Amino acid sequence: MATHDKELKIRKARARNSPARAITVSAGDTHVVGIGNLRVAIETDGKSWTAQGLEIDYIAQGADMEDAKKQFEDGLACVIHQHMRIYGNIDNLLSPAPREVWKEVLNPKAIRARYSQISVHEIIKQAFGFEKVDYLVLANVA
Amino acid sequence: MGDDSSYVRRATVIDILQRHGVEVSCDEGGPSGPGMMILIKGDKIDSRKMPDEVSRPVLHYLARLFNIPIHHFYNPFMAPMKADEKVQ
User: Fold this and answer.
1) Which of B49, B58, B62, B66 to mutate to test the interface with A (most CBs of A within 10 A)?
2) ipTM of the complex
3) How confident is the model at residue A122 (pLDDT cuts 50, 70, 90)?
4) Radius of gyration (C-alpha) of chain B in whole angstroms
5) What CATH number labels B4-70?
């Protein structure tokens, strides 16, 4: 009969100056990371699309909007995986985007469309369990 | 339309990252599939599929994450040499 002798560690963290929260649950070498209230600003320069996390400073580039979202979710999942592998936590990852990014997003004219994506990329859902990603599509001001 | 001059080729970006001491490796067997690159310098970690041409916002992100002057990506000759590189 199998015994469950691995100690279960639960750790909660909150990004500085932002509502983003993270919870990591570890048992031995197995880690589950959940991030909630993560907002992502998406914009294009006409050539490529960029997805910039607000509560977590991470950015990805894609050929179109859907690709930018996929690259963001894949890339961030991999960064989380590496942080967990090396440090056992994602504390170093929990810093918000810089002031100039927030300034652009907080401009009331900037946001063209807003929608949340609860059914995130399957790999992240299985491996890391994002609660929700809130995408903010910015108007092209160029 | 995006200004082509604001984009930098992948090979140049990787070269500049390495010149600034960033370890660049591929994570072919990772959960996010093939082509994912792992970038590590000190306690800073990044991971992404690097496109053929890297846009200005991504370059700014890499610059602030790894503390690299942004102009080094656009003027590679200004970046420091690699440790194994010899002056001609």
Assistant:
1) B49
2) 0.87
3) very low
4) 13
5) 3.30.920
